[in-house]
Amino acid sequence: MKYIYIAGLEHSGSTLLNELLAQQPGVLGLGEVGIFFSPAHMRVYLERWGRDEEARFCSCGNPWENCEFWSNILHLSGEYSNAPILEKYQHLFQYIGERFPEVETVVDSTKGTPILKLLLDNKATLSPSSLPITMKVLHVVKDVRSFTASIARKTGHESLLGFIRTMNWWIGGNAELLRMMNQDFRVVLYERLCKDPDAVLDEIYSFLGFEKTTNPPLSSENRGSHIVLGNRNFLIRNRQKIRYDNAWLMNDRISLAYLLNWKARRLNHRINELAI
Length: 276
Ligand SMILES: [Zn+2]
Fold this sequence. Notes:
By secondary structure, the protein is of the alpha/beta class. It has 13 helices and 5 strands. Zinc ion binds at residues 58, 60, 62, 67, 69-70, 226.
């Protein structure tokens, strides 16, 4: 079985990539598994969204307790269990191997670097004896200026200093991921994915070893998906679609922050060269 971990900062296109990959036959998109397993993250998630009934729905349209995938392993949720995250992942892979033998690829869009490190350091212990797992990482990155605009939209802070700080956060998170890069990693640039999804997906599929199929259009059916944190309506309200918001191009303060922050520019250029 192939296991794909989507890494990167928030607002970088991980949900979109998870959905695009899950359109392929044999692929099961699970969403932010590590967040679902983590007691600390689940506390934050439920504090923020818990009053919204839809927050407890899977993308298949059912509440977690009725979803054919999650209902049987709901006890692994960080809401109910403090067991080590690694143990929960081991349990998850065993469960998939036993109950969903038709699944060839699992996509996890947890994003976070600590969980990625934990899984990479313990890669050998993840595979159930009957099911060898090969792990690959897709590191999604948004252009630092566009990322800064996304964060500003979320926080409402639009100061030059704030923009420079956001850019430094982007540098820290992405540089850390790039240091972990090896032959099982690829960098995916969100801008390029939006502009030319077919070409970028072709390259991703060849890296993942998928058979060449035509790229189905992104539909709301999500046939191969049990994205745990958010049902369809919830996702549609919150997710990024293949639609690129280039309002940042007209934000002179972001351009100025970019010109002043040479480290951000240097890494932005490097990522452009590295990316699929
Ligand atoms: Zn489901």
